Amino acid sequence: MSRLFMFEKPLGMRDTLPELHEAKDKVRSSIEKEMKQWGFQFIETPALEYYETVGTASAILDQQLFKLLDQQGHTLVLRPDMTAPIARVAASKLFKDQVPLRLAYSANVYRAQQREGGRPAEFEQIGVECIGDESVSADGEMISLAISSLKKAGLEEFQLSVGHVGFVNELFVQILGTEERARELTKFLYEKNYVGYREHVKALPLSSIDSQRLLAFLELRGGPEVIGKASELIENGKGRAALDELKLLWEIIEDFGESSRIKFDLTIVSHMSYYTGILFEVYAGMVGFPIGNGGRYDKLLEKFGKSTGATGFAIRLDRLLESLGNLGEPEPVTCILFSPERRKEAYQLALHRREAGERVILQDISSVRNLDACSDTFANVVYLVGKEGVQ
């Protein structure tokens, strides 16, 4: 093992410098405010969870988990997502079966990365979970809140792609016969490997009709007309029920007035294996990955002893900031430079201005080597030096 450099960080970890931190705080605050106005309450969970509970319940691959041992020999993990920890809390302490829970969070999650991947191993998510509501109305609310939150954050150009895990699973099992074969084909979808998908389908021992059904499936993208095209590929059963849910969802999104932001993409699947129904991804300019995603996960709480429907979404703050591009100007800061004999006066002036909402730095002038740099750095500089008045 090579010796680490003094300033080297663990693989995938990043520093957040003041300008970016301030921009992130501003975006986070605007989204948190919107979520609260929609009736969601914020919650915090520990950064460390037991591997046997949250670690195994999470849909994150085992090789991406950060693991360590506590003093009792139990295996712990740094939380790889927030949905599983909130499901644990809801099942054990909050859920009473009568009223759906509306919980929100803003927290860092941790996923180990390969050296060649170049992706962060620690990043912040802000999101919501609606637990105890099995209706399509709840799915529509999640999508509408995601749109509203992004707009409040200042994002203008973005699109949501909406699919249904139940439709994909049912179609593939109908044609391929087994869950195992269906999962093998599904893998090409969440890798976005459509060339590999087509080659795999052509190599399968299927009738020409079934092969064409699987190839036509890749074209199920667009507006509400997609539902009609999809119904021609699926037989009766859960697949048709899934399409009925998508049809109702479109009507709900229209009622919210946000249908222009939505397109159906029935090829969407997720590496998050706990999704069971409607799911969606958010895309914006300048970012090659989804800046947010969400969906329905009706089976997850069963791992914690509760059986109920749930849906939610998460926004990646780092990707959202990247898509916003220009972070804007930081808030102006006043610097009060003072000499020792006017220190008390400087303290009182700073207190008065801070109470008025101004951002103020107090600085002993004897420790400043370059006064011109102060003028370049701060929006306003006040000198309290010697017997001179305030400038």
UniProtKB/TrEMBL annotation:
One of its GO terms (biological process) is L-histidine biosynthetic process. Pfam families: HisZ-like, tRNA-synt_His. The keyword Oxidoreductase does not apply. Residues 26-340 form the Aminoacyl-transfer RNA synthetases class-II family profile domain. GO terms for cellular component: cytoplasm. Keywords: Amino-acid biosynthesis, Cytoplasm, Glycosyltransferase, Histidine biosynthesis, Transferase. It is found in: Cytoplasm. Pathway: Amino-acid biosynthesis; L-histidine biosynthesis; L-histidine from 5-phospho-alpha-D-ribose 1-diphosphate: step 1/9. Heteromultimer composed of HisG and HisZ subunits. HAMAP family: HisZ. Required for the first step of histidine biosynthesis. May allow the feedback regulation of ATP phosphoribosyltransferase activity by histidine. NCBIfam families: hisZ_biosyn_reg, PRK12292.2-4. This is ATP phosphoribosyltransferase regulatory subunit. It comes from Mesobacillus selenatarsenatis (strain DSM 18680 / JCM 14380 / FERM P-15431 / SF-1). The gene is hisZ.
